[in-house]
Amino acid sequence: MANIVRSGSDPFDDFFRGFFVRPVDFGNAADVPSIKIDVKEQGDAYKVHAELPGIRKEDIHVNIDGSIVSISAERKQEKEVKEGERVLRTERYFGKVSRSFQLGQDIDESKSSAKFNDGVLELTLPKKAAAAAKRLAID
Q1: 70 and 99 Cβ atoms separated by less than 8 Å
Q2: Adjacent-strand bridge partners of 136
Q3: Structural Rg of the chain based on CA atoms
């Protein structure tokens, strides 16, 4: 009876199991960048400024559907790892971002224009002329 045999596992072993092999999370999902925009109404057009730092203009897409404007962009990761180098932490985001918003009036797509300079996308979105109401004659 002098020998004590313990069955099962040690509670401390269970507590620390996998503790040092879990990935370390330095941020949360709220850190994923979003497209910041400013929208102004100037007479018969809307002006939109969207911040897209670090994105090439070839990777930006703007779609207009009536009064809904969608902006999407993709930042691609350039992989350049030198021999003997190991990445410990990266805070730069690579991936796709998008933003959609609705304006107060339909947009005339044929007269719309876009410029991209210094990481800021500038959209000029003329309002579509409102169709005059037509009265139907009843037969």
Answers
A1: yes
A2: none
A3: 28
- 75 beta partners: 95
The domain that contains 52 carries what CATH number? 2.60.40.790
Asked if the structure places residue 107 within a domain, the reply is yes
Backbone angles phi, psi at 41, to 5 degrees: -105, 125
- Give tens-digit pLDDT for 14-48: 555 555 554 554 455 445 568 899 999 999 999 99
Q: Is 5 part of a structural domain of the chain?
A: no
For residue range 49-74, list pLDDT tens digits in order. Answer: 999 988 889 999 999 999 999 999 98
Closest CA to 124 of 60, 47, 68, 50: 47
Q: Which pTM was predicted? A: 0.65
Three-state secondary-structure class, residue 50? strand
User: In this predicted structure, what is the pLDDT of residue 137?
Assistant: 84
